[in-house]
Design goal:
Layout: H1 2-22, H2 32-46, E1 70-72, E2 79-83, E3 98-100, E4 112-114, E5 122-124, E6 126-127, E7 134-136, E8 147-148, E9 158-160, E10 167-168, H3 172-175, E11 182-184, E12 189-193, E13 208-210, E14 215-218, E15 232-234, E16 239-240, H4 246-250, E17 257-259, E18 267-270, E19 282-286, E20 292-295, E21 309-313, E22 316-317, E23 337-341, E24 346-348, H5 351-356, E25 362-364, E26 369-371, E27 387-389, H6 403-406, E28 412-414, E29 421-423, E30 436-438, E31 443-445
Parallel strand pairs: 2-4, 3-5, 4-7, 6-8, 7-9, 9-11, 10-12, 11-13, 12-14, 13-15, 14-16, 15-17, 17-19, 18-20, 19-21, 20-22, 21-23, 23-25, 24-26, 25-27, 27-28, 28-30, 29-31
Antiparallel strand pairs: 1-2
Length: 449
């Protein structure tokens, strides 16, 4: 009998403890003010008739730390991350809507806020995010930059505003965020020239800067060379002009990725500029005019880097070296993607590029002056090769009969206008994933498998 009494007492105590610690809904971390703020956010995302965030509910004992898109600190149980990317219903994409930055003030420990892909038209008010380190607003419909209360956003490290409709120049509210390590502004309508002093050069801690696909113009500021921590630099598809800014790159020895495609630089420069950039892995340049002359042989160099991707497109290449093939490529063994197109390179087909780089997935030597022999090692297989393009070269040789066996996973095979002759190789039938095949304007004959 005594045992049952003790059991009953402990049962009552357990219920009391559960009521005091668990039933109030905050022991699990779902603080009242944070739950209410989340539910208001849900209303904003679903206005007028959406169905997003179904797990966010107003049940008294629902723990918001378990809701989708929410991550809480294990100790304080406060919200530290909100992954609200692609949350706004697609069917509401044409309805203009806005968010007030004050909606996030209750989340005093918030460190990461993802709002990308939500068709957001406006972010109203000053952004005062004391602890936020990552803010992602890409893929929306913003036309104006959000304003940052700098005194209340001291820890912001990554800011992504790409793929919006932003216009004008980069405001001081952005270039004064000196804690930034990553800034991406690609695919907007930004215009004007970059300040030769201050501006982006204030961001000494930048690791990644992406200004691609805008309408910037003028010369690049020489002070960008002071961003010595920079690892990724995208300047592609703008209207930057003036002489090629080789002086900037002398000091940027940490760079892993450089993209300079479709800008309007002039003058000449040698890739030997990057000979000692041992971290370099990706280099992309496409010339929008004939005023930029690129040399790889004068002076000759042995690179300290191993590239993963290289694109040189539509440039005046090695004009002083008889348009020869870049010899520094003899020292590259890790290439995954290679494009040397519209360059008028002379010489025989460089089969050694394939032999040296067995993990290639993309190979494009179109619109050059390569001749045969067209040789491929019959004992090798490039299992990762998906796209092979040697169109518009005067090869004048037969297609290797085993081409389909050594490139079994090809998706695209383009060899038009190469003066190819001889029989159609039956092994192409082994490329079971092939989507694009162009062998037009050649002299092939015989049976078509």
């Amino acid at each position: 009998m005594g045992y049952s009494v003790r059991e009953e007492v402990w049962g009552v105590m357990a219920i009391v403890i559960f009521i005091l610690l668990g039933f109030n809904g905050e022991a699990k971390g779902c603080l009242k003010e944070e739950r209410e703020a989340l539910l208001k956010l849900k209303e904003a995302f679903n206005d007028p008739n959406g169905s997003s965030l179904p797990s966010w509910n107003n049940q008294t004992f629902s723990d918001c730390c378990t809701w989708e898109a929410v991550n809480c600190d294990n100790s304080t149980h406060r919200v530290i991350s909100l992954y609200l990317n692609n949350t706004r219903p697609y069917e509401l994409r044409n309805i203009k809507w806005s968010l007030n930055a004050s909606s996030f003030l209750p989340f005093i420990q918030l460190q990461e806020l993802y709002l990308d892909g939500n068709y957001l038209s406006e972010l109203l008010g000053n952004i005062r995010l004391v602890n936020v380190e990552v803010l992602v607003l890409q893929g929306n419909m913003l036309t104006e930059f959000p304003y940052f209360d700098l005194s209340h956003s001291p820890n912001l490290k990554w800011l992504r505003l790409d793929d919006n409709n932003l216009e004008g120049s980069i405001p001081e509210s952005i270039t004064s965020l000196t804690s930034l390590t990553g800034l991406t502004l690609r695919w907007n309508y930004l215009t004007g020239s970059l300040p030769q002093q201050g501006g982006l050069c204030n961001l000494k801690n930048l690791l990644a800067l992406d200004l691609g696909n805008n309408e910037f113009e003028g010369q690049l500021p020489a002070c960008l060379g002071n961003l010595t921590s920079l690892r990724v630099l995208f300047l592609l598809r703008n209207n930057f002009d003036g002489t090629f800014p080789f002086s900037i790159f002398h000091t940027l020895r940490s760079l892993t990725t450089i993209s300079l495609t479709d800008d309007s630089f002039s003058g000449s420069f040698s890739l030997s500029l990057f000979a000692n950039h041992s971290n370099l892995q990706m280099f992309f340049i496409a010339c929008s005019n004939a005023n930029l002359k690129l040399e790889t042989e004068n002076p000759p160099f042995i690179p300290s880097f191993q590239l993963r991707a290289l694109t040189i497109h539509n440039c005046t290449l090695n004009e002083a070296s008889n348009k020869r093939m870049p010899t520094f490529l003899l020292h590259q063994y890790d290439l995954l993607s290679l494009e040397l197109s519209y360059l008028n390179i002379l010489g025989t087909f460089p089969s050694w590029l394939l032999t040296n780089n067995t993990r290639l997935t993309y190979f494009n030597l179109a619109h050059n002056l390569f001749t045969g022999p067209f040789e491929l090692n019959s004992t090798s297989k490039w299992l990762q090769m998906e796209s092979f393009n040697i169109s518009s070269n005067p090869i004048r040789d037969e297609i290797p009969p085993h081409i389909g066996f050594i490139f079994p996973n090809l998706i695209s095979l383009l060899m038009s206008s190469t003066s190819l002759q001889g029989p159609f190789p039956a092994s192409i039938g082994e490329t079971r994933q092939l989507n694009d095949l162009d062998l037009s304007n050649n002299n092939l004959y015989g049976y078509l498998p």
